[in-house]
């Protein structure tokens, strides 16, 4: 069952699990299950995607209950009236602790001309683990809050890699040696990027709507192990 975070006559917000593709596309290869199909069966009605999350990313995903609502939500996303907050675990300790990555990115599938892309980040917590890797006897990691101001393909993943702090578990833009370390020592087999919160105007009522998605077991286990807290983040 897909976890439903919010449901009304206009839209449904779900907590997308990591590893579940949102819909059929060439990008997901031989995936056999898709969130949009499972949700249609679960609610017994037609639903329409309002936006997307990468297959490896978890967290808040909005689904419209009509094509008209999907179009209205799309206008909010295009107009940058929707605020999205993500959590990520990255290699290293970003300096400065808070900043803006302003680096143009190409469109979907890395094709086409580069377009403006901006992501704000804020370092929430750090840890140093006594595990040798390469020429370093200890490894540094950070819990980071990310807020994309634009909506380019894999934007947060590419921007964190661009500033040399790739997201743990990112097979395309991350570090395979650190990904393996997390699997071996921490039993973490997912990409550590979570769409924690989304803030928008209700497409019919016009009132503010804030939806949050809880973390899964892999995330909470790491927070406990590293002594990290997301209270107030």
From TrEMBL:
Q: What is its EC number?
A: 5.4.99.26
* Source organism, top-level taxon: Bacteria
Name a Pfam family for this protein: PseudoU_synth_2
Q: For this UniProt entry, which segments traverse the membrane?
A: none
A GO term, aspect molecular function: RNA binding
Reactions it catalyzes: uridine(65) in tRNA = pseudouridine(65) in tRNA
Instruction: Determine if tRNA processing is one of this entry's keywords.
Output: yes
Chain ranges of the Pseudouridine synthase RsuA/RluA-like domain? 11-162
Q: Which UniProt keywords apply?
A: Isomerase, tRNA processing
Task: Give the signal peptide, or none.
Answer: none
Q: Does the keyword Transport apply?
A: no
What the entry lists under PROSITE patterns is as follows: PSI_RLU
Q: InterPro entries attached here?
A: PsdUridine_synth_cat_dom_sf, PsdUridine_synth_RluA-like_CS, PsdUridine_synth_RsuA/RluA, RluA_PseudoU_synthase
* Any single GO BP term: enzyme-directed rRNA pseudouridine synthesis
Q: Mind telling me which PANTHER family this protein's record contains? A: MITOCHONDRIAL RNA PSEUDOURIDINE SYNTHASE, TRNA PSEUDOURIDINE SYNTHASE C
Functional description taken from the UniProt entry: Responsible for synthesis of pseudouridine from uracil-65 in transfer RNAs.
Give the protein name, as stated in the record: tRNA pseudouridine synthase C
Q: Which species does the entry assign this protein to?
A: Dyella thiooxydans
| Source species taxonomy | Bacteria, Pseudomonadati, Pseudomonadota, Gammaproteobacteria, Lysobacterales
